[in-house]
């Protein structure tokens, strides 16, 4: 399987090269030349497969012979060693709980898989590798935890100062060792721009071995498709017929991974792109015009992205056809006030605590069912409510339980380095890591 850049200014390359490079030299995102349809035999076996087995069966189609099947199987077993349960609120409303990993967020799936893939591919590399990750919240903690104390790898996490929750900050600003947190004066988009500029800086990359850990990286994106199959496996045990996925969306990696699953043959009827005030993609779906804009701060902070990187991959999947994309995806936007009401509604109706991102997904599902088509739906719950405890408690009066894995981090001192939104200063910092 070869991988091409969405900007098409560099030659196609191998899976290993795409993973290690992260972002293509022309600033494009790597895409597989084909998204293979999975065999009928796979779907026959699907009801009995474990999550790691599902991951292995899918990943082998994208990795080819670049990683042995035994090594790939072991990677999947290690990375996917926690449950992803489908919680039924009612017959029309289901919550896929993606927050049972070590950092209580969906990005554990991608980050743990990617870190082990990358470690395997770099096992004979003698030069220090620097992993760059811009985060609006959960990516930082998932990547930091995934690579913590991995030999030969330095992780640099950039995050917008004051724009991530205390819990999220604690999960990547308390580790130290090979993890460095840069607290950037600006927005997530500013952090992402610094990372992209570094990858495009030829002179810098001649001196440093840089790679990415956002959903920019194909090895972070690919495993996110696994849990769509796992959700379907659980859903299909009770229900037959069409169903939709409602996906809280920021950088659109989760939705793009769902599209991969659909292209591989998973019978997903429709996708609902659930957005907060950062509604670039819903506006595109309504108007056929894509206009990147500065992100604005919201209650669902991990979705505060005004120019989502993975939209380039979405365009590739649909052949840059607005009409075709609109047939498969419906987008909705919601305010913070609506999000708070949804958190309250879910608690009062179902006695279920949901975080602000999941609440946006819930709102989008209900709106789709009311205005478009009343079919059962699955909401991706991307974070444990404790990660946004202040908001959840304020609305419901209920304090989400604090898992022990998180409690120990909250007592540790914060370790971060302030950084202005200045590429030259960022570059100087990176060069200092090589001294």
Give a structural overview:
- Strand 9, helix 12 (253-263) and strand 10 form a beta-alpha-beta unit.
- This protein is 44% helix and 15% strand.
- The chain is globular and about 60 Å long.
- The chain has a 6-stranded mixed β-sheet with strand order 3-4-12-9-10-11, with helices on both faces. A 5-stranded parallel β-sheet has the order 8-5-6-7-13, with helices on both faces. A two-stranded antiparallel ribbon has the order 1-2.
- The protein has 20 helices and 13 strands.
- The protein is α/β, with parallel strands linked by helices and 435 residues long.
- It has helices at 15-21, 40-45, 51-63, 69-79, 107-121, 138-147, 166-173, 188-200, 202-207, 218-221, 226-235, 253-263, 280-287, 311-317, 322-328, 336-350, 356-371, 389-396, 404-410, 423-432, and strands at residues 3-5, 30-32, 86-90, 93-97, 129-134, 153-160, 179-184, 209-212, 244-248, 270-275, 329-333, 377-381, 417-419.
- The model has no long low-confidence stretch (mean pLDDT 93).
- Helix 4 runs antiparallel to helix 5.
- It is an enzyme of class 4 (lyase).
- Belongs to the threonine synthase family.
Write out key terms for the chains shown.
Threonine_Synthase; EC 4.2.3.1; 5-stranded parallel sheet; Threonine synthase; TrpB-like_PALP_sf; 20 helices; 13 strands; 435 residues
Q: Report on the biggest sheet.
A: 6 strands, mixed
Radius of gyration: 20 Å
Approximately how much helix is present in the residues? 40-55%
- Proportion of residues in extended strands: 5-15%
**Mean pLDDT level:** 93
Report strand order across the widest sheet: 3-4-12-9-10-11
Shape: globular
The span between the termini is: 37 Å
The structural class is: alpha/beta
Unreliable segments of 5+ consecutive residues: none
The counted number of beta strands is 13
Number of distinct helices: 20
